Amino acid sequence: MQPHCRGAVLRHFSAIFAVVATVFAAETARAGDPFELDWRELDKGVFVGVRPVSYRSPVVGNTTIVIGRKGVLVFDAAGFALQGERLVAKVRELTDLPVTHIAISHWHDDHHLGDYKVLEAFPDAELISHEFTARAMASPLMGDIDGPDDADLAAQKEVIRAMVETGNRPTGEPLSDQAKAFYAETLQYYDLVNNDIKRAKISTPTKTVTGKLVIDLGGRKAELRHIAPGNTKGDLFLWLPKEKFLATGDIVVRPTPYGFYSYPKSWATVLREIKTYRAKTIVPGHGDIMTDTAYLDLLAETMDLVAREVDRLAAQGKTLDEVRAAMDFSSVEERFTHGDAIVTRIFDFWFKTPIVEAEYNLGTGKDNESLDAPAGAGE
Predict the structure, then answer these.
(1) pLDDT tier at 10 (50, 70, 90 boundaries)?
(2) pLDDT interval class at 374 (50, 70, 90)
(3) Domains in the chain, please, with CATH?
(4) What are the φ and ψ backbone dihedral angles of 332, each rounded to 5 degrees?
C-alpha cells in the first residue's frame, strides 16, 4: 500500500495508527492541524511551506510559491482541498499577481488532489505535469478517490475514541503515553481530515512536459525538468537557476524515502545528476529543507544497494519473501533513522519493504506503474 496514492489516502490514515502510534506528543504539538504548513521566504519572492513532522498523518507535501513580475508559479500546490484554499489565501497575502502556473511533481494524490481549489480562484492558470503523470492521473492507477463510507468512518472513530478514553487497545493491551497522545490527536482532527478527503478531485493537466520547460514569470525564469524514472516514471522537479533553488517532489523525502513501485537504478542516476546542479537550497517533497547534498548521497548509495542486492538474490531464484529476508540494510539504515524508534518503523514500512518489491518486480519483468490497474493491485 502506498501512503500517498489517492486510492490509499484513507487506508494510509488507518494503517499509520499501527506504524507511528508511538509518535511523540512533543512532535505533534509543534504544529496546528495536520494541513498547517510552516511558511518561510528562502529567496526574494520564493516562499516554501514545509509540513512540520513530515510523517504525521495524513501525508501532506511541501509547497513552493515563486513570484515574478508577471505571475506566480506554484509547485506541488495541494493534495487536499483545504490545503488548496489556504494556498490561495497565502498567495493573495503575498502578492496581487495571479497564479499563472501550477506544477505537479508526480501523480501521487498528496501532490495534486486539492489543485482544483487553486484553479477555482485562478481559472486561467496552466496546470502542468509530466506526460506520464497526466496519463496516470486519468488511469485506474489513481484508484478510488472516494474512500470508505460514513458508517466505516464512524465505526473507526469510535474505536479510536474508546482507546483514548480507556487507555487500552481493543485487545486490552495498555497504550503507552506516546501512543495515547497520538490517538488523542488523531481523534481531535478525525472529522477535519476525513471530510477533506471526501472533497478530493482530480484535475486534468493542460500542459505536459517530457524533458524541460522554461517558464518566464517576468524577471525570473523557472524550469520544470524531468531526468528519468525515480520515485515514479514521471517525476518533475523545479529548478530556479539564478537562485540555485531546487524543489524535488518525492525524488527526495525526509527523514526516510518512499519506496513504493519505484525505480532504484535510475533513481540513483537522477539523484547524482541533480547533485551536479550545486543547489544552495533543496526542498524535498516531504521533510525539512536542506542546504547541502549529503542526503542526496545517502539516497543514491541506498538505491545502488537495493538494485545490486535484490538483482543478485533474484538471479539466484529466490522468491520475493526470501529476498526481503536476505536483504541487509545495516550499512545505511542508521544514517536514516539515527536510532529513532519511530523513524525506524517508518523506514521499514515506507521504504525497505516496498523498495525491495519494486526492484524485484523490475527484475522479473513486471510494470511497477501499469496504467491498466490500480496502484498495488495484486498485493
Answers:
(1) very low
(2) confident
(3) 6-143+201-294 (3.60.15.10)
(4) -125, -25
